[in-house]
Amino acid sequence: MEWNKIQQYLDEKQWSLVKFSKISGVPEGTLKEYKFKKTEPSFKNACKIADALGVSLDELRGDKNEFSR
Q1: Maximum Cα–Cα distance for the chain, whole Å?
Q2: Within a 10 A sphere around the Cβ of 41, how many other Cβ atoms?
Q3: What is the DSSP string of 8-69?
Q4: d(CA 14, CA 67)
Q5: Dist CA 51 CA 62 (whole Å)
Q6: Please, what is the average pLDDT of the chain?
Q7: Residue 2 has what DSSP assignment?
Q8: Which of 8, 5, 4, 6 is closest to 24 using CA atoms?
Q9: Which residue, 9, 49, 57, 66, is most buried by CB atoms nearer than 10 A?
Q10: The whole model's pTM is what?
Q11: Could you report the per-residue pLDDT of 5-32, keeping only the tens digit for each?
């Protein structure tokens, strides 16, 4: 999941990580790990993030296609 894409949506909505955490149900500390440590969210949290932003998981994936190798 591309944090840069998530950040674009957060910027558009003018949401802080605190607000996004409350809306998505994903703890703020967990969101910070995704943002700063570049860790990947679980499927459950990825769904929460996409739902909170009102987008599909595909929109947050980026251009990576691991199965084409």
Answers
A1: 38
A2: 20
A3: HHHHHHT--HHHHHHHH---HHHHHHHHHS-PPPPHHHHHHHHHHHT--HHHHH-S--GGG-
A4: 35
A5: 17
A6: 91
A7: -
A8: 6
A9: 49
A10: 0.86
A11: 999 999 999 999 999 999 999 999 999 9
d(CA 41, CA 26): 10
For residue 61, give the amino acid letter: R
A 10 A CB-CB count for 68 gives: 5
The sign of the dihedral angle between the CA atoms of 68, 33, 42, 27 is: negative
- List the structure tokens of 31: 């969101």
Q: How far apart are CA 41 and CA 49, in angstroms?
A: 9
Which tokens hold the place of 5? Answer: 């894409």
